[in-house]
Amino acid sequence: MASKLPRVVPIRTRSGLVHDLGTQ
Q1: Rounded to the nearest 5°, which phi and psi values hold at 22?
Q2: CA angle 7-12-13, nearest 5°?
Q3: pTM of the predicted model over 0.85
Q4: What is the pLDDT of residue 16?
Q5: 3-state secondary structure the chain
Q6: Chain-centre distance of CA 23, in angstroms?
């Protein structure tokens, strides 16, 4: 889905929390 976006972009989940793809 967000494969074109950098892995350091904060993504807002349905829970309203922000998860960094770089930390995952």
Answers
A1: -75, -30
A2: 105
A3: no
A4: 57
A5: CCCCCCCCCEEECCCCCEEECCCC
A6: 9
The pLDDT tens digits for 1-24 are 556 666 656 666 665 555 555 555
The CA distance from 4 to 15, in Å, is 23
Structure tokens belonging to residue 1: 């889905």
Distances from the Cα of 2 to the Cα of 17, 21, angstroms:
17, 10
pLDDT at 19: 57
* Alpha-carbon separation of residue 20 from 15, 23 (angstroms): 14, 5
